[in-house]
């Protein structure tokens, strides 16, 4: 009887789910709609502004700025994969989603995260060539090499994201249809799956360890060599510029990897942490890079900041030029009205004086 009951339970697999992110904030959910919407609009606007600046300015059509623009475009895609459903969950307590929609969201989340990692590797290679082999930079960092790096980034991201999604699609979800998360995250989906999930857990852990460990080793070796070479530059201005540029890249790397590391530790070790805290760490991990990267590159990269300021000043000057004719016209209208009032007063005065006489 028990075995038949268990087998019948395992034969039932939910294909529609309810996303319940931040279950402890039942009454405060509506108040989060406006700030989260503002955050989403700010992420899209800030990243799009820097991308537009790089595309519009010819002198920014260089490998480093192209890679920055690609990284920010990935940030927009990552935020769009997460935040619309997140906002819908704040409006409705239980946010419905199908299995196919859940798998698609999970694919785009991990695909964009892995693209972030791969683009950071490409940027480290670009800075390594620029600082360690400056005379050969234009010969090595060609458009062909950039294309190859883009293909490598896409292939490597697909090679990690697709197996995770395929293995998740083959699982049976019989425990419950409620996902206690605001997105279809891999670990959140496995928590409601039934059957032997040893391989799924090992696959997810192995993928994360291999990619993160491999990337961190390469990034650490590259930037150690870059910083050492930068200190060997005799010119103080060139040395400061090289270290400043590397500082921007290192800030982005620390933001992405530290937030991801803290989230993984909390999910796998700290079982006593509440679900709301776990979801908050996931939100920081998924959304913080998209919010900080345009600020880091837009403010700390002098060339991008200069063009953004120039573009904004041009827009303000055009508005002022457009307002000047309106101001002149209003001044002329006021003067003509004053002239008419003066003329009418001048015509009335003789009549009044005549009556007095």
From TrEMBL:
GO terms for cellular component: plasma membrane. Residues 46-297 form the G-protein coupled receptors family 1 profile domain. The keyword Transferase does not apply. The keyword Cell membrane applies. It is a multi-pass membrane protein. Gene3D superfamilies: Rhodopsin 7-helix transmembrane proteins (1.20.1070.10). Pfam families: 7tm_4. Its main location: membrane. One of its GO terms (molecular function) is olfactory receptor activity. The chain crosses the membrane at residues 31-52, 64-83, 103-125, 145-166, 205-228, 249-270, 282-299. InterPro entries: GPCR_Rhodpsn, GPCR_Rhodpsn_7TM, Olfact_rcpt, OR51/52/56-like. Keywords: Cell membrane, G-protein coupled receptor, Membrane, Olfaction, Receptor, Sensory transduction, Transducer, Transmembrane, Transmembrane helix. It is found in: Cell membrane. PANTHER family: OLFACTORY RECEPTOR, OLFACTORY RECEPTOR 56B1-RELATED. Belongs to the G-protein coupled receptor 1 family. This is Olfactory receptor.
């Amino acid at each position: 009887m028990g075995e038949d009951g268990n087998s019948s339970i395992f034969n039932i697999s939910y294909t529609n789910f309810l996303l319940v992110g931040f279950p402890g904030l039942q009454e405060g959910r509506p108040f989060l709609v406006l700030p989260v919407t503002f955050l989403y609009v700010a992420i899209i606007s800030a990243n799009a502004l820097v991308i537009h600046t790089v595309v519009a300015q010819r002198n920014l059509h260089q490998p480093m700025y192209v890679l920055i623009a690609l990284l920010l475009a990935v940030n927009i895609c990552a935020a769009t994969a997460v935040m619309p459903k997140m906002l819908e969950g704040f409006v409705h307590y239980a946010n419905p989603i199908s299995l196919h929609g859940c798998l698609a969201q999970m694919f785009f989340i991990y695909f964009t995260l892995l693209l972030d990692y791969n683009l950071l590797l490409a940027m480290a290679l670009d800075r390594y060539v620029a600082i360690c082999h400056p005379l050969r930079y234009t010969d090595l960092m060609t458009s062909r090499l950039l294309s190859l790096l883009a293909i490598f980034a896409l292939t490597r991201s697909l090679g990690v994201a697709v197996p995770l999604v395929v293995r998740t699609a083959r699982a049976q979800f019989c425990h419950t249809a409620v996902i206690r998360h605001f997105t279809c995250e891999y670990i959140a989906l496995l928590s409601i799956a039934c059957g032997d999930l040893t391989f799924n857990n090992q696959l997810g852990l192995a993928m994360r360890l291999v990619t993160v460990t491999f990337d961190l080793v390469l990034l650490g070796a590259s930037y150690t060599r870059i910083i050492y070479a930068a200190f060997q530059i005799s010119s103080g201005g060139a040395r400061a510029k090289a270290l400043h540029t590397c500082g921007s890249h290192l800030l982005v790397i620390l933001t992405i990897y530290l937030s991801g590391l803290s989230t993984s530790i909390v999910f796998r070790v700290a079982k006593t942490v509440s679900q709301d805290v776990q979801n908050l760490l996931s939100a920081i991990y998924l959304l913080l890079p998209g919010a900080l990267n345009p600020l880091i590159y837009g403010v700390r990269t002098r060339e991008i900041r200069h063009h953004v300021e120039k573009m904004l000043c041009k827009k303000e000057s055009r508005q002022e030029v457009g307002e000047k004719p309106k101001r002149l016209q209003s001044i002329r209208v006021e003067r003509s009205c004053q002239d008419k009032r003066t003329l009418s007063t001048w015509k009335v005065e003789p009549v009044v004086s005549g009556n007095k006489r």
